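Contributing new records

If you add data, match the layout below exactly. Sequence lines come first and carry their own label; structure lines follow with theirs. Keep one chain per record. Anything else will be rejected by the validation script.
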Amino acid sequence: MRIGLLTDGGYPYATGESRLWCDRLVRGLAPHEFHIYALSRSARQERSGWVLLPPHVPAERVRTAPLWAPADDGRGYGRRDRRRFALHFGRLAEAICAEGGPDGTGTVGGADGADGVEAFAEGLYGLADLGRERGGLYAALRSETAVRLLESACRAPGARRSVQTATVPDFLAFADHLERALRPLSLDWYGEDDGLGAVDLCHAASGGPAALPGLLAKRFFGVPLLLTEYGVRLRAHYLATAGGDAASGAPVRALLAAFHRRLAAETYRQAGAITPGNLHARRWQERCGADRAKLRTVYPGMEAQRFAAVADDLDGAGDPATLVWIGRIEPAKDLISLLHAFAAIRRAEPGTRLRIVSVPVRDAEGAAYLAHCRGLAAHLFPDEAADAHAVGDNPVSFEEIGDPEAPDLPDVYASAGLVVLSSVVEGFPISLVEAMFCGRATVSTDVGAVVEVIGGTGLVVPPRNPRALADACVGLLRDPERRARLGAAARARALELFTVEQNLAAFRALYLELISHAPRRRPADSVDADGAPVPFAHPAETRVPGHWTAVRRRPDGPPAPAERVGAGAGAGDHDV
């Protein structure tokens, strides 16, 4: 079947989210015909290029569009289209500004008192129809008309209190964000023969703008939609804006949150199936209005074979006095608590060492946090020397993947007697799963999907509690037999739940299930004037790959039925 894979800021680009699991999906389900529809987030991402596409996905099947660059098509609206835009955008603005629950429900003002979900859908799809027929949404969404409609919606009775104080600069800022988020409405991806209308299924790799083309494909052509969220997009938006932003005031953040909440609710409503990556994400989706009957938890698939040599090395259980932390350097990982916990561990077990291994730090926030952690480690653990003539050594080392001491992840895990995770915010803990594949015992904080992933094969402590983290680590450092039992149980659990094979099997079954429930979409030339199917309009041979449909044409007219060619022989060449 033909699959339209929809991504936002990820695959097939070499940087960004979802690129790894999407690549494994496309490679692992090679019998299906994948068409990639990708939104890019920045010029830097586009300059980074694409990952190496598999041989069965030619570059012609990849269509991209930027969300970061201006996209003015130069079209304007006449009087009738301006009224049409005002009607649909007004409904959308009313739904965004109206009070509503976390699942996007609520009452929208107006003569009909329509429900907030229906009002948002009416406005969204009305704008999509207008953009498909006339274009011009870039200019219209940034126009004075749009600003006036936003102001009217914010001042209307029943508007949420957080947006009632919005000013003209707030409306302009929100209109800019909204135009970028709704840019998929204006793309040329919706052809019936060469676009999303020709696919059998749309698979959105995330919510938000990535799911918009899937919503339109379902509305225009009836294509079923599958939504996968390994990190709930709405939750990520809340976390990104929780601390505030000098460039956007509180009303702008409230408007953006309301828009994303409405969009998430509509996506959950229209999707045929929703696949959260863990129970933590599933609870978020349920709270935002997802139907439980549509939810199927599908864990991310990871390559177990990469770590098999570490787990199978019976003589190399790692250095029992070495603790290893692996991840990105950022405040959410709470390395400060880890360093304070390690100070307590060193007092109980003086010979222990801590390796902090990260991916290369490229952003300013990560670099500043790393410098702070290095300074704290130098303060807590002055360089130690065995005697007056030896060189001092710090028990905490900061390393990056690719360094001589940490050339590859399996080498790092092989050196670990214990793997620790100290995060205060976490989605799906990939480093823990890798440690489990390696047969290593773990100590983690109770955040995100950690408890679901560990499942009793490791120790879990409250976040921001260095004492509890230290006590758990010391307990396992002093009990090698328990460490070995937990490591073996962790590996068995990881091989059962978190492999690429189980991930591919789950999506293969979901594809077939959604297609089997979708109504048959018949080509225009296969139905009569009443819409009834025409018998034998398309011979069975046309469904078989090859040159069955090749036609030998007469110089003076259309081909005769006897001239249609089979697999290497004419119809009259076969013996009866």
